Amino acid sequence: MPKASPTSGRRKSRRESMPPLRGHSSDVTALALAPDHDVLATGSEDVQLWDVRTRQMIHEPLECPGDMVTEMAFSPDGRILVAISGDRVSADPEDPDFHFSIWETATWAELPRPQIGHNGHVTASAFSPDSRLFATGGTDGLLRIRTLPTAISKGPAAT
């Protein structure tokens, strides 16, 4: 008598059978899910914003300087999205071209960019729990902590 496979008798959920989201023309290199789980930001040569429930793009792509988005995160309060873009595999890792892009999520207006402050690739990033600070780490062995500009709007976060 043949053994039952671990998945036999288990019905595929609707989520498992959903087709993939398609929008980028190049590799997807970064993802960020808003704290309320309503918006998914996907990074490639730009940032695209998706309504998780309808699976539709909710805004025109957000432009980023540099070759590819390498790191991306929503602030814990959901009011800010930060993307770091640059060339992760440049021929000269001591002189990379990395940039910050910051948007407030109520209108997706871009906020002023701080200097990246690393001599090397940015390899890690994180927000503080109160959403005020943003830290980055890089191949230069440095940790940079910045106070980010406050979101322009005090209205609802990403929708």
Short summary:
The protein is mostly beta strands and 159 residues long.
Please write out the topology.
Elements: E1 30-33, E2 39-43, E3 46-51, E4 62-63, E5 68-74, E6 80-86, E7 99-104, E8 109-111, E9 122-127, E10 133-138, E11 143-147
Antiparallel strand pairs: 1-2, 2-3, 3-4, 5-6, 6-7, 7-8, 9-10, 10-11
End-to-end distance, in Å?
Answer: 53 Å
Shape call: globular
- The poorly predicted ranges are 151-155
Largest sheet: 4 strands, antiparallel
Key features of this structure:
single chain, mainly beta, 4-stranded antiparallel beta sheet, 159 residues
How would you sum up this structure, described in words?
This protein starts with 29 loop residues before the first strand and ends in a 12-residue tail after the last strand. The chain is built from no helices and 11 strands. A hairpin with a 5-residue loop joins strand 5 and strand 6. The protein has 159 residues and is mainly beta. The strands form 3 sheets. A 4-stranded antiparallel sheet has the order 1-2-3-4, with no helix packed on it.
